[in-house]
Design a protein that fits this description.
Elements lengths: L2 H17 L4 E10 L11 E2 L1 E14 L4 E6 L4 E6 L10 H14 L7 E7 L9 H16 L6 H16 L6 H8 L4 E6 L5 E5 L5 E7 L11 H18 L11 H8 L4 H26 L2 H17 L6 H11 L4 E6 L7 E7 L3 H16 L4 E5 L6 E3 L2
Parallel strand pairs: 4-6
Antiparallel strand pairs: 1-3, 1-13, 2-7, 3-6, 4-5, 7-8, 9-11, 9-12, 10-11
Helix pairs in contact: 2-3, 2-4, 3-4, 3-5, 4-5, 6-8, 7-8, 8-9, 10-11
The chain binds alpha-D-galactopyranose (GLA).
Length: about 400
């Protein structure tokens, strides 16, 4: 049985053991992002895709107002009341309870429910397992209670749940990618208008390899929210002279240089990175359309440099892996991925050399950090969906 079926089987049998027959099951994937990091909450562009690793949820209605949740692979359960929802001390239930909380706040009529979750998205690896849980939960509740919410509104609600219940001021990318992912395509998403289009992503002769530092990033408790504030401070300063600038999406490099260069150095560096990254993504999309994957790969390395030196969301393990990748002829492009402070690098690696590359990186990493490196070769898959029983 494949890993995917294993997870589906696990949630199904655990549900049966605890609650009987589940009513429906939903699968929602993790995501990668090719380029365009920390640009989502600055209303720029991102280029994510859903992957072939997902969170599975089995769910069924209850007659009362109780919510019973089990994480089958963590062997943990929790009970909460729909009438008095508050964040749990454990992290994982908050991704489900936050969705119930949002639905209630928006006036949707839901009752108590039982749910069992499990998945094969590595946790804390920057692959958005949390967004996958949120999207799985909202999709499942939308079906179960026949709420009639559109996919885009589900994405918006899931982002709000993360902002308000979990406390991470994340952008919309992760939920959007999980919900709207499409096999063999990356999503070019404009985070201001939420217009998007699928770009066919042909992996001609290379694979997507993720190298996991296993440094667990806890974005909420790190600097993520601070980065957002630093960008807002930059926007406020620019807007004094250019009131039409509402986000860094509207700012030019000239504005950043002429207005921010002499001020707070952190604010200047953060804004410089974001304005460059928004432009880099647009140029990178042209590379992809032109089939110039080598030019695209070089931009990935540039993104890493900016994330590390200007945006300061990398760590020594990620820098080491990105630097290592740069020395390997097998690698077309590589960089840290996601919010940062740990998690994975994403590497585009030539087919024939994937095994050698992974072995070499693991040996170098062990030598430098005395830690084992995990690796995942991922394929681009479809977004959130119902699974037939
Ligand atoms: C995390 C957030 C996203 C995005 C990325 C960085 O994954 O949840 O909204 O900001 O970091 O690109």
């Amino acid at each position: 049985m494949s890993e995917k079926n294993n997870c589906a089987h696990l949630v199904q049998t655990q549900y049966a053991k605890q609650f009987g027959q589940h009513q429906l099951m939903v699968k929602s994937p993790g995501r990668i992002n090719l380029i365009g990091e920390h640009t989502d909450y600055n209303l720029g562009f991102v280029l994510p895709a859903a992957i072939d690793k997902a969170i599975y949820i089995a769910i069924g209605k209850r007659a009362d107002q109780t919510i019973c949740l089990t994480a089958a692979d963590l062997d943990q359960s929790i009970e909460a009341s729909l009438e008095s929802l508050k964040p749990s001390d454990m992290q994982w239930p908050n991704y489900l309870l936050g969705i119930a909380d949002q639905l209630k706040k928006k006036g949707y009529s839901i009752g108590g429910f039982n749910a069992v979750v499990a998945g094969d998205v590595p946790l804390g690896a920057g692959l958005s397992s949390s967004a996958a849980v949120e999207c799985a939960t909202i999709f499942a509740l939308n079906e179960l209670f026949e709420l009639g919410i559109s996919k885009l509104d589900m994405v918006r609600l899931a982002q709000k749940a993360e902002n308000e219940f979990v406390g991470l001021q994340c952008g919309i990318m992760d939920m959007f990618a999980s919900m709207f992912g499409k096999k063999d395509s990356v999503i070019q998403l404009d985070c201001r208008s939420l217009e998007y289009h699928y770009m066919p992503f042909h992996q001609d002769g290379f694979q997507i390899v993720l190298l996991d530092t296993c440094v667990k990033h806890s974005l909420a408790s790190t600097e993520y929210n601070t980065r957002r504030l630093e960008c807002e401070a930059g926007v406020a300063a620019i807007a004094k002279l250019y009131p039409e600038v509402k986000s860094l999406r509207d700012a030019s490099m000239d504005m950043v240089e002429s207005i921010l260069a002499g001020g707070d150095i952190k604010v200047y560096q953060r804004c410089k990175f974001i304005v460059a990254e928004i432009a880099r993504l647009q140029a990178g999309c042209q590379d992809l359309v032109a089939g110039d994957i080598a030019a695209f790969g070089l931009k990935m390395f540039e993104t890493h440099k900016g994330l590390s030196q200007e945006y300061e969301v990398s760590c020594s393990e990620l820098d080491f892996l990105a630097d290592y990748a740069k020395t390997q002829s097998a690698v077309i492009g590589a960089r840290m991925m996601g919010g940062g402070f740990g998690g994975c690098t994403i590497n585009l690696v030539r087919d024939a050399e994937v095994d050698n590359f992974i072995a070499g990186a693991a040996a170098a990493f062990k030598n430098r950090f005395q830690q084992d490196l995990k690796s995942y070769i991922v394929a681009i898959g479809d977004g959130t969906s119902l699974i037939n029983n």
